[in-house]
Amino acid sequence: MVFTAFKQAKHFLGIGDISAETLKARYSQDAYYLKVQGIDVRIKESGQGEPLLVLHGFSSSADTWDGWRNELSDQFRVIAIDVPPFAITGPLLHTKTTPDVVVHFINAVVEKLGLTHFHLAGNSLGGYLSWNYTLHYPTKVKKLILIDSAGYAKVAPLAVVLMRGKGIRHLTKHVAPLPFIIQSVRSAYADSSRIPKGTIRRYQDLLRREGTRAAIADMMRGMSTDAKHIKAIRTPTLIMWGAKDTWIPPQHGKCFQRDIAHSKLITYDDLGHIPMEEDPKRTAADARHFLTR
What we know:
With 293 residues, the protein is α/β, with parallel strands linked by helices. Helices cover 43% and strands 17% of the residues. The chain has helices at 2-13, 20-27, 66-72, 99-113, 125-136, 158-164, 168-172, 178-188, 199-207, 212-221, 227-230, 251-259, 275-278, 280-292; strands at residues 32-36, 39-46, 50-55, 76-81, 118-123, 141-147, 237-242, 264-268.
C-alpha cells in the first residue's frame, strides 16, 4: 500500500528520469529508429510520394503529427521525427543541444534518410528550426510551412520560462508535476476537449526522458529573434496560425507574412498553438493545397 502510494506520488510530481529504453517499450508503436551521430532518432513515417519532413515544437514529439500522417500519406511520404533534445531522441552527445547544432543534426538525419529535395513543415520551436534549416540549406527545401512558429521577440510562456531561467531550472531538471503538464497542454489547445486520450500522460513521460530536462535550457537560451534573417528566406512559404494561440501571438503570423516574400497566411479562428494536432483534417487539407498547387 505504501509503495503504491509512493509510486503514484512520484508519477504525480514527475520525479526522476525515465530511461530511453523504458520509453521505447512504451511508445514505439508505429515508429522506427535511425542511428545518427550515435543517437537513436525516433521516426514515425507514412505514405509514399514527395517527402514532407515535419518538426514538432517545445517539449512535444513526432506524435503531434499523427493526424497529418493519416491525412496526407495517400500523396506524400510524411516523416515526423523526435527533435533533440526532446522525446525519445533526447539530447545530443558530447555537445550542447543548441538550435544551430540541432539544425545541422537535422540535416544529418535528412542525409541518412536519403532526402535531397523535400517539403519542410514545423510548429512552434519546430517552425523556428524549419526556417533556420531553410536558410542554411535553401536548395534542399522545396516548400516551407510554418505553423505558429517562433521567430520574433516576445514574452515566453511559463513552461519555457521555467525551463530556461537560472535557479528554477535546477528544480525543473528533477520534477515535472502532472498539474503543470495538464495546464501547459490545455493552454496549447483552443478547445481542451479535443485533446486525445493519453496525450497528457505521453507529454509528461517524454519530458522525463533521461537528460532532456537538463538540455532544454541550452536549446531555449540559444534562440535568436533577429527578423533580418527571416527576410532572407526565398522559399515558397505557407504560414498557418491559430487565432487563439496563447503561446505565440497571432500577430507574429502577420510578421512572417510581411517579412517572407510571396508568402501566404491562413488563420484559424477556433484553434490554438498546435492547430495541426487540434484539427489535423482541416489544416492538412490546406497544406495539401499549398504543396500541390
